[in-house]
Every structure is written in C-alpha cells, then in structure tokens.
Design goal:
This protein has 334 residues and is α+β, with helices and mostly antiparallel strands. The chain is 24% helix and 31% strand. It has 9 helices and 18 strands. The protein is globular and about 65 Å long. 37% of the residues are buried.
Length: 334
C-alpha cells in the first residue's frame, strides 16, 4: 500500500504508557470469551453487500437469520453498489455512530462520454484531491446544500477506451456518483458512474473477515443444529473491532464503572493512550481486558493526557459496557 493511499484512521500511532495496574479476573471478560449469546449481541459483521437489495433490506435479513431484534448498518450503500457494509448487532448498535464518520474507500468504474488522454485524467484527479465542494444529487436522502468533503487520494488503476477504473479514499458522506459527474464536467467531456464497490470502511477491509449472507446463514444453522459455535465466532466479530480505527485509551478497573454511568474519564483513571490525539478528536475507551467501555471526545491532547494528574480527559458520548460489570471505584457526591 502506498504511504499516500491511507485513510486518516490508518496512520500509525504509538502506545504511550501513563501508569500501570493489574486487572481483576473476577470482573468483566475478554471479548472472545463472551458466551455465544452475549457474543452475538455484542458483535459486528463485515458483510459483503450484494448488488440489488437496499442496505436496510440486507440489515433486516441479518436480523432474521440471527433471530435478533436489533441490528444497524454503518454507511448506506445504494442498491446497485456492492462491498463492505459493517452491521452492528444487538447492544453493539450503540457503536454505529463511531463508524459513520470513519473514512471510506471505493473502487469505481467511471464512463467518460468521450475518450481523454491519460495525462488529462491524472491532472483532473490531482485537482480533485483534497477539499472539494459537493452538492448532493436530487435523489439523495439528505438536505441539498453545498458541503465540503475531503478526498484523501485518487489512484488511477486502468483505462480502456472510455472506461476509467480508479480507487478513491474519501471522507464519510462523499457522493462518488457526483464526483464522477463533476470530474466529467472538469474534463469537458461529461462522465457518469458505471459501477461502484466499497473496499474499506473505518477498520474494515476486503479480507478474510468479510462474509456473505450465505456464510452467516450456514454458520448460524451449524450452531443451532449441531451446537458448534466455531463458524459463528468466525463470521461475527466482537464489536470492539468496529472501534479499532479510533485512538485508544485503556483505563484502570477502578475507573470503569464511573464511565459506565456516563461520567467523563478522569486523568487518574488512564493507564495507556495512543499518540496523535488532539482536543475534540473521537476516542475509544477500553478496559485492560480489551472490552469497549465507551467512546467520546478528547478534552486534552495526547501529551497533555500523559502529564495530567487531574481533570477530565475524555467526555463520554456513548456508553457501551453495562454498569456494574466492574466494582464501583468512585463515590457519589453527597
């Protein structure tokens, strides 16, 4: 992978140690050790969406296959678009918001209305890299107003006559159909999107974790009929995977329950954190066993968190772990 072709969440971070502590094995559990029913309810599927159905229909089918009440997808794909559609299950639907704002990557086949030299296409690609202005199409489900979106990279893969195959890394909420249209205007030829496939969404990739609806159905039947959990644990991932693109902060056992009750994370509760955190950045808070406690917004930069003895370092937006999972290590105000 080119060092330039990286989404913001893929940039390497260092782990910084603020303090050390032990964890009590009697409280909480590692995500892979959850009993299968809890594992499903706190799971996420890296689903390969087929062409045809809507994202909502696919999510509904997942609920029916797994016989669960709740599931939520992250980042709608149009019916004709294929590829990555992360689906959070049960209690993990609370973490959908953390994925919605993550960067995305697509492979797109664009059809030019007139043949254009390769050098011209590359010139337009460079012009459309960085901040661009987009007006959502009339068909879109959002309010039609001009918005700024970041194009992190545009990589030309292949040209055949009027067909241009390219890879694009972009900010969430970028319309690739509109991008093709606008680049066609800039080329002076006109262009439209022919085919589109999503290849990255936050931490998810086209790799061995990606599964089809058939894979999911087969794994569920194997568990129900033969009491074999193995396949189900392969096609469903712990919800923590869906937060792994966010900067990570690991906290003491004694700090967990306060955060589970919605409190901000105090500096004294931090054990390790990742470098590169800026104020206002979304961050994920984990136990020492790797359980997702919450996600929220950093109130200090990494270096400030590392040095802070007091103060709130993360404001809590969404709690993911049940209160009472760890002993109360805080006192309510009188």
């Amino acid at each position: 992978m080119s060092s330039m072709n990286l989404l913001p969440s893929e940039r390497k971070r260092e782990t910084l140690v603020k303090s050390e502590d032990t964890t009590d094995e009697r409280s909480g559990k590692r995500p892979i050790d959850r009993p299968i029913q809890e594992y499903i309810q706190k799971g996420v599927i890296n689903l390969d969406k087929p062409a045809g159905p809507t994202s909502h229909e696919v999510t509904s089918w997942v609920k029916k296959i797994l016989e669960i009440d709740k599931a939520g997808h992250s980042g709608t794909l149009d019916p004709g678009v294929t590829g990555l559609l992360p689906i959070m299950l049960g209690d993990a639907t609370k973490a959908v918001d953390a994925l919605l704002t993550a960067g995305k990557e697509y492979v797109c086949l664009m059809k030019l209305h007139t043949e254009v030299p390769e050098r011209e296409i590359k010139r337009i690609f460079s012009e459309f890299t960085g901040e661009i202005y987009q007006m959502p199409s009339i068909k879109s489900a959002v309010k039609r107003e001009t918005r700024i979106r970041n194009i992190y990279y545009l990589e030309l893969l292949e040209i055949e006559d009027k067909n241009v195959l390219f890879k694009v890394g972009c900010e969430a909420g970028t319309y690739i159909r509109k991008l093709c249209h606008d680049m066609g205007l800039a080329l002076g030829t006109g262009a439209h999107m022919q085919e589109l496939r999503r290849t990255k969404s936050g931490p998810f990739r086209e790799d061995k974790t990606m599964v089809t609806l058939h894979d999911l159905k087969d794994a569920y039947v194997e568990w129900k009929e033969n009491s074999n959990e193995e396949l189900l644990r392969e096609v469903i991932l712990p919800m923590e995977v869906g937060l792994s693109h966010l900067p990570k902060i690991v906290i003491r056992d004694s700090a967990v329950d306060a955060v589970c009750h919605g409190a901000g994370l105090a500096a004294a509760g931090v054990l390790t954190l990742e470098s590169g955190i800026e104020r206002g950045d979304p961050v994920a808070v984990f136990t020492q066993k790797g359980e997702a406690v919450s996600f929220g917004r950093a109130q200090m930069r990494s270096i400030e968190i590392l040095k802070a003895a007091t103060g709130i370092v993360v404001s809590t937006d969404r709690v993911l772990l049940e209160p009472g999972t760890y002993p109360k290590g805080w006192k309510a105000k009188e």
